[in-house]
DNA sequence: GTATCAAATGCAAATGGTTTGCATTTGAGT
DNA sequence: ACTCAAATGCAAACCATTTGCATTTGATAC
């Protein structure tokens, strides 16, 4: 918990139980979590926890770049993960939701080519690969 | 309109004004459209048009693969476009919403590599590039 | 420690995009 | 024209997320 406390202090956010627990939960998840996932995880251990606190905390944590939100194809709820400094892409298991991070990025050259070809100034991109993780390929 | 009629008939869907108009509208858009975009476009010309008809039509059209829905980063509404048979990716203008289709795909080799490296069976992927189109780069 | 005050929280109500129930209309085949 | 499933309009329901407001709490100053 020491680490999370420092993260919050460095970001000039008050250290509150909700925020510490949200960071801990995202840090120990093996895939993306929704606001409600986090709420359900924490509700039993925090009395009087409100779902709106989760939403407001996620908003703040994202604003200071401690976490990131992702929109997944065919999912309407926002999904969250701990922020990672290195540019990365995702392997997402369609069965168990496990997420593997890939730090290799095949897009930069491609973006450059496409960019000049279509006179389009590319500033960012999203690339997610869907399929089945080792455990789910039986 | 002749074409759209045939599309619907081939898909075993009844030919209705709403569906014809939705196909026409998507066919002539230069970017993705939301259900409400389409509704606002058609409302003036179709008396008693209901937004739920738009939603139900989009659902049907997607089911028979005449159109596709896309989830965009930081947009909560579903976006639609006419289906395209060839595998493609998107250049999306952050200012005007224009979408350019790229039929070049740099991912297949990458997916193969990553696949064997992480024992992950990749079945699909999404790749969208965001930035500014020629007209919006002033 | 105690006082202070903005920031964070709980709770309930409001939102906004999307879906659904139901009575009525319409398209396609006879 | 006749029939019947499918499509539609409208209102109400739904669900994820946001917001208003009264209360509590964390950080800083004494
Ligand atoms: Mn990630
Ligand atoms: Mn497309
Ligand atoms: Zn899995
Ligand atoms: Zn543009």
Short description:
Two copies of one chain form a homodimer. Chain A has helices spanning 2-10, 17-28, 35-42, 51-63, 107-117, and strands at residues 67-70, 79-82, 89-93, 99-102, 121-132.
Structure description:
The structure is a homodimer of 138-residue chains. Chain A is an alpha+beta fold and 138 residues long. Chain A folds into two domains: 83 residues, Arc Repressor Mutant, subunit A (Orthogonal Bundle), CATH 1.10.10.10; 53 residues, Ferric-uptake regulator, C-terminal dimerisarion domain (Dna Ligase, domain 1, 2-Layer Sandwich). Chain A contains five helices and five strands, in the order ααααββββαβ. A three-stranded mixed beta sheet of chain A has the order 4-3-5, covered by helices on one side. In chain A, strands 1-2 form a two-stranded antiparallel sheet. In chain A, a hairpin with a 5-residue loop joins strand 3 and strand 4. The N and C termini of chain A lie far apart (37 Å). The complex binds manganese (II) ion (2 copies) and zinc ion (2 copies). Chain A binds a DNA duplex (30 and 30 nucleotides) through helix 4.
């Amino acid at each position: 918990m020491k680490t999370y406390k420092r993260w919050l202090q460095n970001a000039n956010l008050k250290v509150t139980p909700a925020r510490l627990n949200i960071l801990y939960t995202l840090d120990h998840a093996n895939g993306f979590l929704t606001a409600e996932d986090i709420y359900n995880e924490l509700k039993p251990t925090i009395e009087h926890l409100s779902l709106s606190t989760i939403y407001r905390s996620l908003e703040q944590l994202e604003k200071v770049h401690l976490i990131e939100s992702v929109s997944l194809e065919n999912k309407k709820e926002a999904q969250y993960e701990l922020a990672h400094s290195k540019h990365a892409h995702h392997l997402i298991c369609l069965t168990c939701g496990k997420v593997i991070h890939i730090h290799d990025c095949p897009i930069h050259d491609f973006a450059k080519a496409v960019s000049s070809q279509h006179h389009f100034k590319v500033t960012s991109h999203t690339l997610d690969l869907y399929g089945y993780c080792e455990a789910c390929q039986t």
